[in-house]
């Protein structure tokens, strides 16, 4: 009886649907990534596509679609102050503007913007540590922006009418 119960428990646990995300699939065989401005998110997109099902094309002519980064900016503003008028925390933000078009130049994703932000506390006693934390948060935001862009391409591609 205990073997049946153990087998039943194992079957229930394995049927929960948990699965690792794996590679980001875009539904495209090839994608060209270009940028009109210097873009760390473009670098992150290229990194995420490396080794995945979507191959990076050297130029737009050889690609099924082209992802163009139109603008990218980061900002750091004061979020709140202490009672003594000193900075308590900052708001870090990343804005990315991009567009996706097919090989014929027809827009797949019209120019769109992603804005991500994080709040970081400030400490006068550990400025170097806070600077390192700030850089880590910006890197995390760039990675998240790249993932969101690739997933948006996948959703648009999956919902596109068959040719």
Could you outline the blueprint of secondary structure elements for this entry?
Blueprint: H1 2-14, E1 30-35, H2 40-49, E2 55-56, E3 65-81, E4 87-102, E5 107-121, H3 127-159
Parallel strand pairs: 1-2, 1-3
Antiparallel strand pairs: 3-4, 4-5
Name its key features:
about 160 residues; alpha/beta; 5-stranded mixed beta sheet; 3 helices; flat
Brief rundown of the structure:
The chain is an alpha/beta fold. It has helices spanning 2-14, 40-49, 127-159, and strands spanning 30-35, 55-56, 65-81, 87-102, 107-121.
In helices, the fraction of residues equals 25-40%
Which structural class is indicated by helix and strand composition? alpha/beta
Give, in order, the helices and strands.
HEHEEEEH
Number of helices: 3
Query: C-alpha Rg, in Å?
Result: 22 Å
Query: Which stretches are poorly predicted, pLDDT < 50 over at least 5 residues?
Result: none
Tertiary shape? flat
> How many strand units?
5
Strand content: 25-35%
Largest sheet: 5 strands, mixed
The overall pLDDT average reads 86
Q: What separation lies between the terminal Cα atoms? A: 56 Å
């Amino acid at each position: 009886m205990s073997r049946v119960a153990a087998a039943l428990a194992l079957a229930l646990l394995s049927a929960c649907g948990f699965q690792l995300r794996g590679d980001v699939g875009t539904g495209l065989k090839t994608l060209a990534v270009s940028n009109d401005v210097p873009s760390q998110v473009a670098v992150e997109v290229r990194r995420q596509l490396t080794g995945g099902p979507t191959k990076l094309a050297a130029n737009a002519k050889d690609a099924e679609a082209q992802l163009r980064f139109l603008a990218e900016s980061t900002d750091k503003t004061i979020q709140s102050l202490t009672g003594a008028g000193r900075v308590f925390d900052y708001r870090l933000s990343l804005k990315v503007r991009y567009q996706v078009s097919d090989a014929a130049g027809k827009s797949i994703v019209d120019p769109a913007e992603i804005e991500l932000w994080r709040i970081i506390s400030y400490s006068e006693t550990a400025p170097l540590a806070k600077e390192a934390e700030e850089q880590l948060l910006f890197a995390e935001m760039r990675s998240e922006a790249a993932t969101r862009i690739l997933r948006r391409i996948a959703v648009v591609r999956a919902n596109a009418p068959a040719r």
